[in-house]
Amino acid sequence: MKKLMLGLAAASLLLGSGLALATPEQDRQDLIDYYTKKYPNVPIENYVYGALAFDADSMGQYNSIMEFPPFIGDIDKGRKMWETPLKSGKTYADCLPSGGKNIAGNYPYFDDKKGKVVTLQDAINDCRVANGEEAYKVNDMKTMGLLTSYMRTLSDGMLMNIKVEGPAATAAYEDGKKRFFSRAGQLNFACATCHVQNAGVRLRSELISPAVGHAVHWPVFRGGDTLVTLQQRYDGCYKQVRAVPPPQGGAALNNLEYFHSYLSNGLPMKASVFRK
Amino acid sequence: MNPLRRNVLKGATGASAVAVAVAAGLLKPTQVLADWNKAAFEAKNVGDAMKGMGVASPADSKDITIKAPDIAENGAVVPVEITSSIPGTTSIAILAEKNATPLLADFKFSNGTQGYISTRIKMGATALVRAIVTAGGKTYTAAKEVKVTIGGCGG
Amino acid sequence: MAEPMKIRANMQGDVADIKVLFNHVMETGQRKDAKTGQLIPALFIQDVNATINGTTVMTANWGTGISKNPLVGFKVKGAKAGDKVSISWVDNTGDKRTDEATIS
């Protein structure tokens, strides 16, 4: 583990600009090699189930609950929001690429014109503002959360497909990667401390999920009931290590989501799933 | 207040009040206010719940299968499936022995419905999930332990 | 406000496999409101009734220990494709709901 972190961090730090950094593809492959070496019996496709892939009893409960999930009513509310025309008379489907179908795996992407990472929530808000509505707060589960709980299901089955092209995009990716591997908070844990070093292992009573396979399955309904988006989960994780979370929808967490999503490239998306 | 309720409460006893309500046309004969067994559902331990249900010494039975997790992912939503292969099964009751009120549900079957129920229950703590089956006028029971933990990663 | 149930009813051989997802908060009466500190009053389905073509096949009494947005699955031998399933519930405030589906 130390060797891996040193390898990835060193590649970025020791090699100066103008020389090739470890590419995102190398980072992703290094992590897959690390996990599959540690857990040769867990196929990488199952990583979309997170910790459930490592425990049959948990996976059985997931399958049972997902057969007829208790949160279908909430997803229906999200569908009503999606289908309701905006003030201009246009719908979200008119506004987003491909009518909003099979696009979630392309986000986040780096917008060279804007000079920053753009998330799917940003795209939804751009749509709202362009059509006479106010932007939703990205950390509001009752608005952005519910809307995306339906909207993201339109991309179910799509393979995560994040692109990192050009120096500005690469810098944002590297910023996210650095954050992922940096310790934070009173407990002094990095994301990697749990989700790389301790993936597949229990900390207290919790089985820890690997970082590959994380970003494809959001939002989740925790306990079948409490809607949590990916950045809302980042917020929770920061609080759990007793750090002040960076604001949702800001550059820090957007860059983290950019890096984090890249790690799941090639894995199928599935939105609005059960988690404990 | 619900007008059905007002009429029932006015009556001297439940039975006569229901008769009044039926006669008054407020209740259709097929749609009788079911007796919700308050004594059983509000009992704070398994013994009192069984007493409330009128069940005494159900026989342990290997013909009752309880499919439930070993460790609940979330105590608010524990999937449970109970199958009774005892011939003539007419009801399945479900209890979680350490819940504040252990009796969770009582299902009665008729007209071809099999001795099977699937549902999701709330559990407050590690406990036996118990099924009490009525078949052929006799009662039988089986139980399975489900562990409930408080995780460190909620949020 | 009684929200609609979702009913799935399919024949598997000569047995109708029926699953119902109820839309109900199933409040136990033991939770405290985070802001006011007051107990949130119990609000839960107490009685459930299932009929096929008007004949009662299942009745149930529930306590507060059934999960929020309850699921119930049961099986009826002798039912046929095209039969009408009707599910009714009444909660502890007298609120009620009936929904129907056809067995496919």
Short description:
The complex is a heterotrimer of chains A (276), B (155) and C (104). Chain A is mainly alpha-helical.
Which properties best describe this structure?
A: 276 residues; mainly alpha; Cytochrome Bc1 Complex, Chain D, domain 2; three-stranded mixed β-sheet; C: 104 residues; mainly beta; Immunoglobulin-like; four-stranded antiparallel β-sheet; 7 strands; 0% helix; 50% strand; elongated
What do these coordinates show?
The complex is a heterotrimer of chains A (276), B (155) and C (104). Helices cover 44% and strands 7% of the residues of chain A. Chain A has 276 residues and is mainly alpha-helical. The longest helix of chain A has 15 residues, at 24-38. By secondary structure, chain B is of the alpha+beta class. Chain B has helices at residues 3-10, 14-23, 38-41, 46-53; strands at residues 59-60, 64-67, 78-84, 89-96, 103-109, 116-121, 127-135, 138-146. Mean pLDDT of chain B is 85; it is low at 7-19 and 21-33. The longest helix of chain B is centred in the first third of the chain and has 10 residues, at 14-23. Helices cover 0% and strands 50% of the residues of chain C. In chain C, a hairpin with a 2-residue loop joins strand 1 (6-12) and strand 2 (15-21). The model of chain C has no long low-confidence stretch (mean pLDDT 97).
Structural class determined from secondary elements of chain C: mainly beta
- The strand line-up of the biggest sheet of chain C is 4-3-6-7
CATH-defined architecture of chain C: Sandwich
The CATH architecture of the largest domain in chain A is Orthogonal Bundle
- Biggest sheet features of chain C: 4 strands, antiparallel
Query: What name goes with the CATH superfamily of the largest domain in chain A?
Result: Cytochrome c-like domain
| Number of helical segments with 4 or more residues of chain C | 0
The assigned structural class of chain A equals mainly alpha
CATH class of the largest domain in chain A: Mainly Alpha
